[in-house]
Each structure stands twice: as structure tokens, then as C-alpha cells.
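Hi, here's the filled form for the chain we discussed.

Project: internal
Contact: R.S.
Residues: 364
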Amino acid sequence: MSQNAVLRPPAEVEYAAELQALAAEDTRHGRARPPSWHLAPKSVRTYLLGGKLDDGTEIKPKYVGDARLMETAIATLATDRALLLLGVPGTAKSWVSEHLAAAISGDSTMIVQGTAGTDESALRYGWNYARLLAEGPSAAAMVPSPVMRAMNDGKLARIEELTRVSAEVQDTLITILSEKTLPVPELDILVPARKGFNVIATANNRDRGVNELSSALQRRFNTVVLPVPASIDEEVEIVSRRVADLGRALELPVEKPALEEIRRVVTIFRELRTGVSEDGKTKIKSPSGTLSTAEAIGVLNQGLALAAHFGDGVLRAADIGPALAGAIVRDPVQDRICWQEYLQTVLKERDGWKDLYRACKDTL
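And the returned structure, exactly as it came back:
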């Protein structure tokens, strides 16, 4: 399949030109790379945070925030410690995990999606049962997990939402992370990890169904906590970049949203999240949802789709209103009350926001 037909290519494909330019920069400067790494740590940092190379190549920022957090994450992966990216939903944990794997291993696809139904085979290995019944246990009958493939290839494995996996299955990782081997008792062998292997896990403790990591497993990880954006300008920049990227990927025939519309959505989310208006004068009830940066991006993309297919191609308040209500009102009783109160006490009184107030009011 052509990459142009893929809805969302992996980071190492989408940003292949940047990764090649960074590798060439490493060569020019004679930078040392840890075993099996595609880029030197400094170039991984540039890939994540953006910058301009000696040859004039512009590297687009993938993460907007504290540079020291990214340096800590990169340095962790250069050691024998695994990395745990921790934070509330929408703080770019998965995004950072993918781009770290793309820059370091050149492959971000060795991923396990953690759910309540994830079993040990997703972290260790499974079996092709037709061959197992016909031939008995053998290497040919084994189905390696993404973690096992990463061990064999000396690459990074990604485990998303680790705390959604049951505690018994989580502890499967202890031997892998401490001994850097994977026992296969059925074949009486140990699968050793090649240099370059490591694990990036993501987790949050805000969702229901969370299973806390055991103390033994926590000790195998270095934890980097990704915070919500510190300022409204920082959050507006993040949302603006991601909305533009997704709009291009979805090929929406629509004008780029004005920064003012993005700022209005981000302001609403930040006020509802913090429980106080931007000027600090009005206390606000917070709804039950997370209202993270990711949800703000979703609201704007939904608004762009409405504007593109049912409007004139320009994002307006009438396109944003329905998406805002859908993101904020998760509990039809309590969240609806919070949203109505916010509209009456904050949005209605704000100069220049009457159009958005009316659009949101119409959705109730």
C-alpha cells in the first residue's frame, strides 16, 4: 500500500527526512551513539524539541514543554533502566513514546496496547496452535510478542497504558527488565536481549480500572512525569500544531483555523479544568471529564470537519459549539449543570464571545 493512502504512517516514515538529516549531522560531528541507536542522544533531543541543523534543515518540534524532561527520558533509555512516562490523560505520553522509539530505534511499531484483557502472551510469546499440535513445542511454532521481537532486534518496545493491565501480567516484565532475558520453559531456553533493547511504558492514574504497579516493578523503571501545559500560550501552540498535522493527514478541504478560535477553545478547557476563570474572579464547577489538551485537539478537528463538509470551509463558532458540548458533557446530569452554569456566568459575560455563547447554548 502506498504511504499516501495510509491514514496515519508511523513517525519514522512521516519524519524520515528529518531523521536522515539528523543522522548525517551526527556523522559530520563524529557523535558517539549508544549500541544499536540510530541517532546520538543530542540528535534525539533535537528531533523531539526542534531546531535548525548545520545544513539548514528545519527540525519540527514534536514536544512543546520542559526540555529537561526530554533529556531525562533520553538519558534513561541510554542506561539499563526502563522508562515510565506518567501523567494525566492528554499530556502527550504516547506521542513522546512513539517519537522516542522512532528516533532511537528507527521503529516505533513494536507496541503492546495495555487493556484489562491483555494477557502474558502479549508481553512474552504465544503459540501457533496448529503447528503446536502438529509438531509439538518448537521455535517455529512460537509467536513472539512485540517485546520479544524488540529483545531479538535490540530495539525499543512500547507498552501503552501499563496500569490498565492486570497486576499478575504486569509482573511478567520483572524478569525481562532485571535480567534482560526471557525464559521459554517449554523449549528450556533463555532468549537474551541484544544491546539497544529497552522498554518505554506509559501510564496514568485518572482512568477507572487502574492497577497500580508493584514496588518490584516500579524499581525497574525511571519515571518521568509529563505535566499539563504550564501556560495558555504553550497549550495553544501544541493544539495549533497538532490540529494542522491532523488536518493535512485527513485532507480536510478547509482553511487553517484562526489562532483566536484555538485560543477560545483552550481557554474554556483550562478554566473548566482549574475551576476558576482566566481573570481569577469567578469560581467554576469542574465537570467529570479530563478536558486535556488531547480533547481540545479533538474538538477543533471535529469543528473543522463540520466547516469543511457542511459549512463554507471557515471554522466558526457554530462548528465548535456541538463539539465542545460533546467533549465536556460526559455525565448527562452533573456535567450538564456545570456546563450550563459556565455558559451563564462566564461565556455570556465575556466581550467578543457572544457568537460562541449562542452556538453552545443551542446545543443544550
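Let me know if anything looks off before we file it.
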